[in-house]
Design a protein that fits this description.
The chain is mostly helical. It has helices spanning 3-11, 13-23, 25-36, 42-54, 58-72, 77-94, 97-113, 117-131, 140-156, 160-178. The two termini are 37 Å apart.
Length: 200
């Protein structure tokens, strides 16, 4: 075990990455392998951690984080969650809808696996609210998937009223998509409506 890496992870992703680079490739891979168990090939861990350490810019680091997070997702939720959160941050900073949606979906999956459908839904709600901003651009399928997931998660959490409300709002979006309005791919399809909120 490596208490320093454990402690750094509890402080957040940036602290963990600094500590991991300080510990070096071999120790970081050994630490991650011990946490993940035998189901995660050590060679794959070494490849993705090495790619993270050697990345020359933020885009390359983001790709390495996503690959490492996907590898660890079923076996080390804490590290995978931290990695995906950092990917999500870069997605918002670079206004990359694919990164935003992918990271949101994985983070929602981790939250749901940990029996927290509300937290899972909030990632998709944040995506929809971002998508309604002037800079928000994405394909209609991502928006429809986000609505579908919120409705499913609300029903799973015993919130039929919320599920019905988001179903109604999805119909509003679907009208825009079917008419091929600009708002179906960019901007707010319901400008008079306040940002969506969860049932917290």
């Amino acid at each position: 075990m490596n208490p320093r890496l454990d402690a750094a992870l509890t402080e957040g992703y940036d602290a963990w990455e600094v500590a991991a680079k300080s510990a070096g490739l071999a120790r970081t891979v050994a630490w991650a392998s011990q946490r993940a168990g035998e189901d995660v090939p050590k060679e794959d861990l070494r490849e993705f951690v090495s790619a993270l350490f050697d990345a020359e810019d933020e885009d390359e680091r983001t790709i390495a984080r996503a690959e490492l997070a996907e590898l660890l997702e079923e076996n080390d939720d804490a590290l995978a969650d931290a990695l995906w959160e950092r990917v999500l941050q870069h997605g918002f900073a670079s206004v990359d809808p694919d990164l935003i949606f992918e990271a949101s979906s994985h983070l929602a999956g981790i939250a749901e696996d940990n029996s927290d459908p509300l937290a899972a839904a909030e990632y998709f709600i944040d995506f929809l609210n971002w998508r309604r901003q002037p800079e928000g651009v994405s394909d209609p399928e991502s928006v429809q998937t986000a609505f579908d997931e919120i409705v499913r998660l609300a029903e799973a959490d015993g919130e039929p009223r919320v599920a019905a409300q988001f179903t109604f709002w999805q119909v509003e979006y679907t009208r825009a998509a079917e008419s091929e309005a600009e708002e179906s791919t960019n901007g707010d399809w319901s400008p008079a409506r306040a940002p969506y909120e969860s049932w917290a």
